[in-house]
Amino acid sequence: MPENSGRVWNINGLRHLPGLWEKIMECPCCSRTLTEVAQEDWTVEVCSGGCGGVWFDRFELARVDEADEAVAPALLNVETDPAVVERIDLSERRRCPHCNMIMMRHKFNPGIDIDVDTCPGCAGAWLDGGELAKIRDVPGDEEERTQAAHRHFNRLFWELGGHGED
């Protein structure tokens, strides 16, 4: 590689800064480069100026998914481009921006209609633009939401002919 005099080189999805290589993470929805946002002593990647989605590494989403947990305002109000948002196909399966595996889609909580894309390889989680704020607006603490999910699944099981408790 030629001497770069402090410039940044992008080679095969890796960013080279003088003395450092780091992975460039692309948005799984609109392919823009994700931007790091500081969240206390850790960072989260966001698609600023694109679809507004947020990438959480393993276990990071659990650190900000309740209203009483501290969160950087930049995570709740990620800048979007309406033209990009309009083109997003929410039914399309997405690839993990960290390890490129196809992510699994599931409901964040049975009581709310928010899908989370989770990577089976690295356990990271992707939320589409605005979904973190919606998750944090759900009333109750984690215990109350767990109990509500338990009641919901019991009702489903009962309706399917099982023997759940009501």
Report on the structure:
By secondary structure, the chain is an alpha+beta fold. The chain has one domain. Helices cover 20% and strands 24% of the residues. A hairpin with a 6-residue loop joins strand 8 (112-118) and strand 9 (125-127). The longest helix has 18 residues, at 142-159. It starts with 8 loop residues before the first strand and ends in a 7-residue tail after the last helix. The model is unreliable at 1-6 (pLDDT under 50).
Structure described in brief:
This protein is an alpha+beta fold and 166 residues long. The chain is 20% helix and 24% strand.
Beta percentage is 15-25%
- How much is the radius of gyration in Å? 19 Å
Number of helices: 4
Instruction: Quickly count the domains.
Output: 1
Structural class: alpha+beta
Biggest sheet statistics: 6 strands, antiparallel
For the largest sheet, list the strands in their spatial order.
4-5-6-9-8-7
Number of strands: 9
Order of helices and strands: EEEEEEHHEEEHH
Shape: globular
Features:
4 helices; alpha+beta; three-stranded antiparallel β-sheet
Note the topology.
Layout: E1 9-11, E2 14-17, E3 20-23, E4 35-39, E5 42-46, E6 54-56, H1 73-76, H2 82-87, E7 104-109, E8 112-118, E9 125-127, H3 131-136, H4 142-159
Antiparallel strand pairs: 1-2, 2-3, 4-5, 5-6, 6-9, 7-8, 8-9
